[in-house]
Design goal:
With 146 residues, the protein is of the alpha+beta class. The protein is 44% helix and 32% strand.
């Protein structure tokens, strides 16, 4: 959301100041998309409650597993991820931080001052694909029953 406010000085002169701000959801979405581009991250994880809400929606929320604190010039992010088994997690973390900082900086001009990544699980690609397939089948069945 962009705002323009009007300030007056002691001499009754009008001085306009421009201000650009972003909803937290916008920053979370940019971070989520950038994170999904990193090889080795299978999924962003939102915990139990997010899993319940995902079952009620037909599409996955790209901001799931991303927390953001957005200031006027800086951003701090918390990520919850599921990583592919056998991959180098510190390398994945470094690549994720670099991609997020670049995407948010290029798109918003904000400085990312902190990225915390919490690895909630590791899975093989086959395990993850099987779990995803099962969840989609359950979701389809529950929609058909309604």
């Amino acid at each position: 959301m962009a705002n323009e406010s009007l300030n007056t000085t002691g001499q009754n002169e009008e001085v306009r100041t421009n201000k650009l701000t972003f909803e937290d959801q916008v920053i979370k979405k940019i971070a989520g998309i950038a994170s999904n581009e990193v090889q080795g991250i299978l999924s962003m994880s939102g915990g139990f409650m997010s899993g319940l809400t995902d079952r009620l929606r037909s599409t996955e929320d790209i901001t799931k597993g991303v927390g953001a604190e957005v200031g006027e010039r800086q951003v701090a992010l918390d990520l919850r991820v599921i990583v592919e088994y056998g991959k180098n997690i510190p390398s994945i973390f470094q690549e994720t931080v670099a991609k997020i900082k670049k995407a948010i900086g290029d798109m918003t001009g904000l400085e990312v001052i902190e990225v915390n990544m919490h690895v909630e699980d590791v899975m093989t690609r086959a395990e993850f694909d099987a779990k995803s397939k099962n969840e989609q089948a359950e979701e389809k069945t529950s929609r058909e029953l309604k």
